[in-house]
Task: structure prediction
Amino acid sequence: MLPVSSLSRVAYELRDLFVSHIDDFNDYENIRIGHPADTLKELEALEDSGLNLFFYDVNYDGYPVDGSSENPFYVRINCLITAVGQKSSESHGAGSRDVSKGENELRLIGEVMRILHEKPVLSIDDGNDNEIAQLQVIPYTMSLDNLNHIWSTQSETSYRLSVAYEMSLAPVPFTIPVKTSPLVGDSQMLSWGNTSRPKEDEKAGLISLKPMVEYLEIATDDDDWMPHICFVENVDSVPSKLHYVYLIADDFNKELGIQIAAKDNARVKMVWNVWRRKKDNSIVAWQEDIADKVEPLEKEIKDADGATDPFYPNRIDSDNIDSRRIFSVKLPDDIKDTETKTWQAMLYAIHERSVETLPGSGKFKTLVTRSNSVLLYGEGA
Result:
């Protein structure tokens, strides 16, 4: 058997995406991968409408800088997605009406474009739920000459309604994980001169070096909802303030308040990434530390007289900080190391969900949605 490649995994993941998000598809039989001259006849013989994925072009995009074979090279993959409609009927008012093959093909192509617009990133794994790379899916406009050239090679197969996409960048070989660039913790740049600014200017709002926490509501209707977090200054006092970036200058052992906007009854996991400079000026760069899971958010709470107090778990509002959405976390232990000179700690939340790879298959994979980041920093103890 031929070994699995990143090209074949791209085709599999794209087919899996359509099977999972097009309601009428409940089987891989509805989506074929191959030459239209061969597969369109098979799709036309089915009772239901279907799609064909024709990967017609692969181009080199980049090589390792050092030319080493230990690192993957990257390719761009072009795919022509063709709809094959079948005649059907649907209820229409008090009666029903026939839906032609052509109309169903328009509906299918519309669904393909909607799905790839809403989910433009294709995750590629190694078959064991270990992510190898992420590919961007980009609409690719083909001229009539290029379309005619492709379809003229399809023997006696006539042109069918199609749309083209480019997927990039796919690593080859795909079994080597793609390592992204590390976060920058210190540029180590030196500057001379008077760069100070009067404190009055910042107080007056003339200079703002930190992002403000504005009112927001996250959409939680879809399964892939994204949590949102911010740091709460002075949790036990009124008024409190919300921040995305904050200097920690006191007790490193105390619990920090983090406000979370999430779906009701949801669980999220808090993750730290820590950068620190040691007193000998050596760097320990962005080590990951997993914090505890946050308990499910409550839908509502009742006060002493029994009145119901409304609760909106998907909101963050600087003017109305709800204590029921504030959760306690502790700074990573590395920050408290006696050898730490300066440090930065980036915190984010992840929402995990299990998705069946194919309806009824009994096989599942874990998908992760990540929140925004909160950056805390300071000097060592």
The longest strand covers residues 340-356. Residues 6-172 form a domain with the STM4215-like fold (CATH 3.30.2000.30). Helices lie at 6-21, 36-44, 101-118, 144-152, 199-203. The chain has two domains: 6-172, 199-379.
